[in-house]
């Protein structure tokens, strides 16, 4: 219905209109409305070419010029359904996967819309990022963790929101032997989160935060200090 033709005419419709997402060329100059009208009158691509002499000169020329592309596009648009391929649905069932490996592949292939769906798939499968990390560690025979050290809440937080404060913090960072780095985001889901700040610590129980605000252009001062 969305294409304006019957289901059995979709292949011939794409043969004339083409499909850029699948690199199907179609016939140059024949758009959806023309294809709908032609198939509405002649039913199939073959019948359209059988009655070329009945068409307007412009349509005749376009269809004649791209005849080879039309039949190539027809072949490319047709889904082959008679291949003898055994399918075991149980073996095809997905119970778990490695999110980072999948994300790396999606980035390489530029599958941006699929990337945003991974979190939903993981939720459906009952997977979590923590669970996945544990599974990956087990692959390399790591010893079980002896337990997590509870983080201290007795910290001194310094909000850096002026050029002077930033300069002071940069000096402290340059003089430090060890720097602890973290990010502050709007969500723990890294596919949906937006960055709102950066946390840096050079001494125990002391934390520096660089917020991104309208009043303090952080990048400008970092650039000026060559940091």
From TrEMBL:
CDD domains: H3TH_53EXO (cd09898). SMART domains: 53EXOc, HhH2. This is 5'-3' exonuclease domain-containing protein. It holds the Pfam family DNA_pol_A_exo1. Keywords: DNA-binding. Residues 1-95 form the 5'-3' exonuclease domain. Transmembrane segments: none annotated. SUPFAM superfamilies: 5' to 3' exonuclease, C-terminal subdomain (SSF47807), Ribonuclease H-like (SSF53098). It comes from marine sediment metagenome. GO terms for molecular function: 3'-5' exonuclease activity; 5'-3' exonuclease activity; 5'-flap endonuclease activity; DNA binding. One of its GO terms (biological process) is DNA replication, Okazaki fragment processing.
